């Protein structure tokens, strides 16, 4: 459905300064996949989406989307895709229903068909009650659902969503996701969805595949579970009195599946947690306890923690993604040097 080969994008900012926003991204996304693209601010996520949606031309490399080359055949690409940009696309002073009808007409539906389609989308995205209100009177969550509806007007089989849930409260995030997942399977063939998010838990829960981008390159690409198992591993923490720390750590080193063992800082009683990084924490913990018991070592407490996608990013880059997530909550939409909105260009 999407195939890119060594895609790059340079922005020449001034005579002496070029931003290498995307530095050689190769991706192969199959029909029906739900892919989350993660990465810190400025990683190149939006720029990649904008190249795939024909909004900016690549500097080098190639990309085909829905079978068409983004440079040679942009009109065909646009007809096949929906795009919900980081900033949203709805006209603020429009009435909700009219906005959807107008979008339908832009995509070549006659007025009657456009009204029918608008009604279906309002229903599907739970906006029927808001249909006759002005767009700028909607709450953030309702507005974002309208953005998604606008992206779906022409029934694309492939949908790009750039931070669909940023800035929404937990209730509205859950609500938006429910709708995204429902409309994903509502079509005759499952839709392909590529989205960016700074909410790692969303990517973890909903995406079947996670692509981690950093400095314009893909640094990991797999299921969330595989990334966590391969790159981070579970953490089994065994609390033990000071006298047993060395022996327990040595025993844990020898246990099957162990990748690394560290002794945590001493507690008030001098005891420590022996922290065991292992492929399968819940599987390894009972064996560790039995071995400790057989060796006459005391374990006073056991904790098993599964890694998060943030642990994966930390393991890959030495930096945490979590810090960028908070800053980004109100990040502005399109770049100031490129004022083109989705609607203008895709229309
Ligand atoms: N039109 C432009 N002109 C100059 N530089 C740009 C332009 N658009 C993007 N950039 C730069 O390219 C880099 C990648 O930006 P991009 O918007 O793709 O990042 P992102 O991963 O979407 O980040 P965020 O999480 O903040 O949305 C950044 O350094 C950004 O400042
Ligand atoms: Mg972005």
Written description of the protein model:
With 347 residues, the chain is an alpha/beta fold. The protein has 2 domains: 2-228 and 322-346, P-loop containing nucleotide triphosphate hydrolases (Rossmann fold, 3-Layer(aba) Sandwich); 234-306, Alpha-Beta Plaits, CATH 3.30.70. 37% of the residues lie in helices and 26% in strands. The chain has 13 helices and 14 strands. The strands form 3 sheets. Strands 6-7-8-3-9-10 form a 6-stranded mixed β-sheet, sandwiched between helices. Helix 5 packs parallel to helix 6 and helix 8 crosses helix 11 (309-317). It is elongated, with a radius of gyration of 24 Å. Bound molecules: adenosine-5'-triphosphate and magnesium ion. The site of adenosine-5'-triphosphate has 18 residues, from strand 1, strand 2 and helix 1.
Query: What is the makeup of the main sheet?
Result: 6 strands, mixed
Q: How are the strands of the largest sheet arranged? A: 6-7-8-3-9-10
- Total strand segments: 14
Rg is 24 Å
Order of secondary-structure elements: EEEHEEHEHHHEHEHEEHEHEEHEHHH
Beta-strand percentage range: 25-35%
Coarse morphology: elongated
Uncertain segments of ≥5 residues (pLDDT<50)? 325-347
Distance between the termini: 22 Å
The CATH architecture of the largest domain can be given as 3-Layer(aba) Sandwich
Pfam families: ABC_tran
Keywords: Antibiotic resistance, ATP-binding, Nucleotide-binding, Transport
GO cellular component, one term: plasma membrane
GO molecular function: ATP binding; ATP hydrolysis activity
């Amino acid at each position: 459905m999407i195939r890119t080969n060594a895609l790059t994008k340079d922005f020449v900012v001034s005579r002496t300064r070029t931003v290498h926003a995307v530095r050689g991204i190769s991706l192969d996304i199959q029909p029906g996949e739900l892919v989350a693209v993660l990465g810190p601010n400025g990683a190149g996520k939006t720029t990649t989406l904008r190249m795939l949606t024909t909004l900016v031309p690549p500097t080098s490399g190639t990309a085909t989307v829905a079978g068409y080359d983004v440079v040679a055949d942009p009109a065909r690409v646009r007809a096949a895709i929906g795009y919900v940009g980081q900033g949203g696309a709805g006209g603020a002073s429009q009435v909700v229903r009219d906005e959807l009808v107008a979008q339908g007409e832009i995509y070549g539906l006659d007025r009657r068909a456009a009204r029918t389609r608008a009604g279906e989308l309002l229903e599907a995205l739970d906006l029927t009650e808001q249909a006759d209100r002005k767009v700028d009177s909607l709450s953030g969550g309702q507005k974002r659902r309208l953005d998604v509806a606008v992206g779906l007007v022409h029934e694309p089989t492939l949908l790009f969503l750039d931070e669909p849930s940023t800035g929404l409260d937990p209730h509205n995030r859950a609500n938006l996701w429910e709708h995204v997942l429902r409309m994903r399977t509502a079509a005759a063939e499952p839709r392909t969805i590529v989205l960016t998010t700074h909410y790692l838990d969303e990517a973890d829960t909903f995406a079947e595949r996670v692509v981690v981008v950093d400095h314009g390159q893909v640094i990991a690409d797999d299921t969330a579970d595989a990334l966590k198992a391969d790159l981070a591993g579970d953490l089994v923490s065994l609390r033990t009195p000071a006298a047993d720390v060395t022996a327990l750590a040595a025993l844990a080193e020898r246990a099957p599946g162990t990748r690394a063992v560290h002794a945590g800082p001493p507690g008030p009683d001098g005891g420590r947690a022996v922290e065991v990084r292992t492929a399968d924490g819940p599987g390894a913990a009972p064996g560790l306890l039995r071995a400790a018991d057989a060796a006459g070592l005391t374990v006073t407490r056991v904790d098993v923690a599964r890694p998060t996608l943030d642990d994966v990013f930390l393991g890959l880059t030495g930096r945490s993604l979590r810090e960028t997530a908070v800053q980004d909550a109100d990040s502005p939409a399109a770049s100031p040097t490129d004022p083109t909105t989705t609607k203008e260009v895709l229309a």
